[in-house]
Structure formats: C-alpha cells, structure tokens
Amino acid sequence: MQATPTDEARALLRRLGADRIPHPGGTLLTHLERVRIQLALWDARPALRLAGLCHAFYGTDGFPTALLPLDRRTELASAIGPDAEAIVHFYASCDREATYPHLLEPLFRDRFTGRTYAPDRALCRDFAELTAANELDLARRDPAFRQQWGPELLALLSRFRPLLSQLAWRDTLAILHTP
C-alpha cells in the first residue's frame, strides 16, 4: 500500500522531532494534527488540510521554532505537494503586525524578505481559514490563552470573516464569543 501525502507528512514531522516539541495542548505534532482535523471538519480541500498539518514547518511569526530551513522547501513539497507547500510557506512568511490589518485589501508583508505585495484572493482565504483553525485550537485547549487573547482573536477573525467559510465562522463565534 502506497503512503499518502498525509502519511509522508507525519513521517517527516516525526523525523524532525515535532512529536517532541512542547506546544500548548501537548506536542507540536498533536497540535498540527488537530488543526488538520479541524480543517477537514470545515470541508477544506486536501491541499489546505495538508498545509494545516504542516503549517509550522518554517516557523511562524508567533511560533519561531522551525523544523526545516527555507532552503529545504523541496523536502516538504516532495511529501505534501507543491500546492500545499506554497500555503505552508505563505502562512509562515506572514509578518502578522503588518498583514493582519490589511489582508482584505489585500496587502501582505513577507517577514522573510520584507516584500509587501497583493496576494491572490484564494491564498488569502486559505490563510484566513488556517489562521482560524490554528488559533481556535489554542483557544479550545487553554482557558488562560482564551481569556488573554480571545477578544483580540475575535476581532481579528471578525475582520477576516469575508474570507472564512461559514463553518469556520460558526466555530469562531462558539469558541470566542462571550455574551
């Protein structure tokens, strides 16, 4: 039986130590699996689900631990395909402070290069959906995180609402909205 891209991604994650890196709610691998599952529950297409499983490969603006340096992107692309890897790279490259207020325009700043540009709307939707899945996983698992960051996350995801699926928006309200 041939390994699926998901199987290959998991094997690479384990080989690079994601199952040993602490992360809120367990290990990094556990978090990544939950993000993939959340995206599947929201009916995300396979490339976005794979990106959810691998979104921390190059580190992020909020989680600097990288499993692979950027000069080894082809290793991840070989495992999950170039479309999913492009989403992972885009997500990892986000300069959050510069991008979050302007994603709908769209305006995106790459933290690796410093370049600011207007990405494709579909990529912005993927980014917003992945951001929601990632942040909502943290908010679900950690009441202190939700208390500290919940209002800010709700404001962010409210701005992203035109880019989010109905299922993602429903879960955003269920997890972050406090009457």
Q: Your description of this structure?
A:
- By secondary structure, this protein is mainly alpha-helical.
- 59% of the residues lie in helices and 4% in strands.
- The chain contains nine helices and four strands.
- The chain has helices at 5-15, 28-41, 46-54, 73-80, 82-92, 96-99, 121-141, 143-159, 166-176, and strands at residues 22-23, 26-27, 108-109, 116-117.
- The strands form two sheets. The protein has a two-stranded antiparallel sheet. Strands 3-4 form a two-stranded antiparallel ribbon.
- A hairpin with a 6-residue loop joins strand 3 (108-109) and strand 4.
- The longest helix is centred in the C-terminal third of the chain and has 21 residues, at 121-141.
- The radius of gyration is 15 Å and the shape is globular.
- The model has no long low-confidence stretch (mean pLDDT 96).
